[in-house]
Design goal:
7 helices, elongated
Length: 123
């Protein structure tokens, strides 16, 4: 099963619901394609290691992470370094964090539109 998920991460969609919560299977999927996090169980979307692996492969996978992890600096930094526009899925607190915003903008200039307006005066 893990081999199939490694070769075609979206195969996670077709596996039984119980298997979508198996850590090693979900890790194999997100290491192949970060957006496979979409098909993972809620428990896996809340697992810091799984979400971090997904974010490193595709920053936009952050949108499928639990709210708690979208507010975790390490996870969000990994996501915005991979794809700056992932900033839009970060918690409001991290959209105010100048280091996070700078990392996002360095990767994709348009990420600035997702930063907190409170940073507008910072130069």
């Amino acid at each position: 099963m893990a081999r199939a998920v490694c070769q075609t991460p979206s195969a996670l969609y077709y596996v039984h619901e119980d298997l979508q919560g198996r850590r090693e299977l979900v890790l194999a999927a997100v290491n192949g394609q970060g957006l496979a996090l979409f098909f993972a169980s809620e428990a896996m979307r809340s697992d810091p290691d799984v979400v971090l692996a997904a974010a490193r492969h595709c920053g936009l996978a952050l949108q499928y992470a639990s709210a708690h992890l979208r507010g975790t600096r390490e996870v969000v930094l990994a996501a915005v370094r991979q794809h700056g526009l992932a900033l839009q899925f970060a918690s409001a607190a991290l959209r105010k964090d100048s280091d996070v915003v700078l990392a996002a903008v360095a990767q994709h200039g348009e990420a600035l539109k997702h930063a907190s307006p409170s940073l507008a005066g910072d130069r």
